[in-house]
Amino acid sequence: MGKYPEVEQKMEKRINGLISEFKTIRAGRANASVLDKIAIDYYDTMTPINQVGSISSPEPHQLVIQPWDVSVLSKIEKAINKSDLGISPQNDGKVIRLNFPPLTEERRKELVKTVKKYAEEAKVQIRNARRDGIDMYKKQKKNGEITEDDMKNIEKDIQNMTDKYIKEIDSITADKEKEITSI
Hints:
The chain is an alpha+beta fold. The protein has helices spanning about 5-25, 75-80, 105-140, 150-180, and strands spanning about 40, 45-50, 55-60, 60-65, 90, 95-100. Helix 1 runs antiparallel to helix 3 and helix 1 packs parallel to helix 4 (about 150-180).
């Protein structure tokens, strides 16, 4: 961490959150992380699918969910149908298969819009972290703990940190858009 760990921590946390959100966006190949946000009621507890069974990808466009307790198959199937995944699960009584069709041009455009929306939300949170950090130091200046010159340097440093993280968001976003459109 740099000179302003409390500000940098918030910004770093948001970048990591954005990367996690991007992993849940399907970009052509079957990826188990698209199931991360889907949970089922398992003994009165909302439990992610990856905690009630194993998930494998026997083919590039297919995921197989094999629950440890076969009685939850229908719950998993219902949860996937309710989700925004857009895939119909195939339940054979032992496992659930998810076949991911190739992305249509229309679906690619929707996914790119979603990616841009997540990126913009992340940028807003980065800017909020900048504002909160600067406000914290303004209070210190008001209390006489730091000088006017210190405050100017702090504002400049935090702005540079903000610019760095915004560029990182742009880079991560461009990579994800490329991944979606090039398959």
